[in-house]
Amino acid sequence: MADYLRPLLYLALSLSPVLAHDNGLALTPQMGWDTWNYYGCDVSEQTLLMAAQAFITYDLPKYGYEYIITDDCWQAPQRNATTGAPVADPTKFPSGMKAVADQIHSLGLKFGVYSSAGKYTCGGHFGSLGYEQIDAQTYAEWGADYLKYDNCYNEGLAGTPRLSYDRYANMSFALNATGRPILYSMCNWGEDGPWNFAPVYLIPARLVRAVTYLTQTIANSWRISGDIYDNYNRYDERCPCTSMIDCKLAGFHCAMTRIIDFAAPVGQKAGVNHWNDLDMLEVGNGGMTYDEYVTHFSMWAVLKSPLVLGNDVTNMTNETLEIITNDAIIAVNQDANGSPAERMWKVPVASGGDLSLWSGSLVNNTFVISLLNTSPETQTVTVNFTDVFIDQGPSYQTGTYAIYDLWQRDSSGAWGKNIGTYTGAIPNVEIGLHQVRIWKAVPATTTSKRDTAEL
Ligand SMILES: *[C@@H]1O[C@H](CO)[C@@H](O)[C@H](O)[C@H]1NC(C)=O
Ligand SMILES: *[C@@H]1O[C@H](CO)[C@@H](O)[C@H](O)[C@H]1NC(C)=O
Ligand SMILES: *[C@@H]1O[C@H](CO)[C@@H](O)[C@H](O)[C@H]1NC(C)=O
Ligand SMILES: *[C@@H]1O[C@H](CO)[C@@H](O)[C@H](O)[C@H]1NC(C)=O
Ligand SMILES: *[C@@H]1O[C@H](CO)[C@@H](O)[C@H](O)[C@H]1NC(C)=O
Ligand SMILES: *[C@@H]1O[C@H](CO)[C@@H](O)[C@H](O)[C@H]1NC(C)=O
Ligand SMILES: *[C@@H]1O[C@H](CO)[C@@H](O)[C@H](O)[C@H]1NC(C)=O
Predict the structure, then answer these.
(1) 3.30.450.40, 1.10.10.60, 3.20.20.140, 2.60.40.1180: which CATH number matches 342-443?
(2) Closest ligand to 285 CA?
(3) Which-ligand-closest: CA of 316?
(4) CB under 6 Å to ligand 6: residues?
(5) Is 381 in the pocket of ligand 7 (CB under 6 A)?
(6) CA-based nearest residue to 26, from 155, 191, 183
(7) Where are the domains of the chain?
(8) Pairing between strand 183-186 and 146-150?
(9) Which first-to-last residue range defines the signal peptide (predicted)?
(10) Ligand 2: which atom is nearest the Cα of residue 83?
(11) Hey, whose CA ends up nearest to atom 11 of ligand 3?
């Protein structure tokens, strides 16, 4: 069924009481920093405030980074015995969570908190299952702007979309009921297909040939796979699935390029205020080369994943800082069009790995093109516009484009160098091992129109 007809399916649903909420957040993928990838359980008010200060020192808000998120292990051993409310560990957070949130806010930043839709969190602290209301209320009182909501110790309440939906929708409603807009980042590792059960499509604004329609969703983003680890392509038995579509064990220790494979088919399910989360970034943590981290950051950007840093932002190399502040790449991620790039082809390379071509639409009739080489050797590829513009049709395929390389600086030092005008193809592109090319394509003429066949 064409996606634009799907809203009709939900006509009856949308006439019943509203089941989901629109908190007005994540119109573009969220950007920020989270403690987990660098600190693990070793969180404290100091780690959060030092990161917040580093955001200011390095001017990261200018690029769009805004959330400072504590991951797991902020909790005291017990909830408040009288009220059942969550309590922060008084040795790690002697000032209390509200004071930490206040200080983060005073820097112009936003504060995020973590819990699990289970009896315990992954680190064995108290979880939120059965405590959704009081937890959401307490986070709102602290001044939280973001909740990362994990999936550990879920007591078997998973295995069907309905079970997962109920657990995650419960917290969604609880957050909504607080009256405070709190970005809701579902972390159920792709179990039961959150791309299917989290969005709720409403009646399109224009029923006739509606290509855009309103979407309400129980969450602003959902993780699509088991946890990332700081590695380019190593297969690890703890991340056993080859695709997430029917995966029975999401696991963890998923190498970066494996997550790109997982993301390829589900781009169609993401959009404004409901994003596929490819997991937090490892850029700067040391397990990959410069080219591999450029690939990591670029592909997360073009697939419209949240860009949540996971490195020590208080102590970054110039290379790390340069990668995470490439504003031409970030502009692709934050493009108002909100459509993840799609993989147009993928071909295996005899020596291992593969080559793949990705294409995505940006606002103002412009496009992003990505060429990815996960093989262990340099490749030469002619990028044909018949492939790039499969969706747009013949007039686009034969069109002429100004091409900008988003990993080269122009003469003024800005990212995005114009490398020339191309018709039909970008010929003979040399791409080194584990490299990526990210181009922006701008039609050189304004005469092309969308092919009617596509609408
Ligand atoms: C709660 O949901 C309603 C209905 O979608 C929405 O209008 C409102 O903005 C939401 N409020 C918050 C705080 O998320
Ligand atoms: C538990 O809640 C009560 C009532 O709000 C409060 O007086 C008390 O300080 C709280 N205890 C802890 C450990 O937060
Ligand atoms: C959410 O879960 C709580 C505790 O299990 C339950 O009392 C409540 O009815 C649930 N809310 C919804 C909307 O399902
Ligand atoms: C900063 O990072 C470098 C490695 O990049 C390390 O050698 C150094 O100890 C770090 N400094 C601090 C204060 O953590
Ligand atoms: C990093 O960049 C800063 C500012 O541009 C410069 O002063 C410093 O020398 C650079 N450090 C290295 C190791 O290149
Ligand atoms: C799109 O075009 C409008 C009108 O020319 C312009 O104001 C806007 O900056 C453009 N957006 C981008 C992302 O280029
Ligand atoms: C692009 O087209 C040329 C000419 O038809 C062909 O030789 C080449 O293999 C194509 N490139 C790819 C990556 O398919």
Answers:
(1) 2.60.40.1180
(2) 4
(3) 4
(4) 363-364
(5) yes
(6) 183
(7) 31-334, 342-443
(8) parallel
(9) 1-20
(10) 2
(11) 170
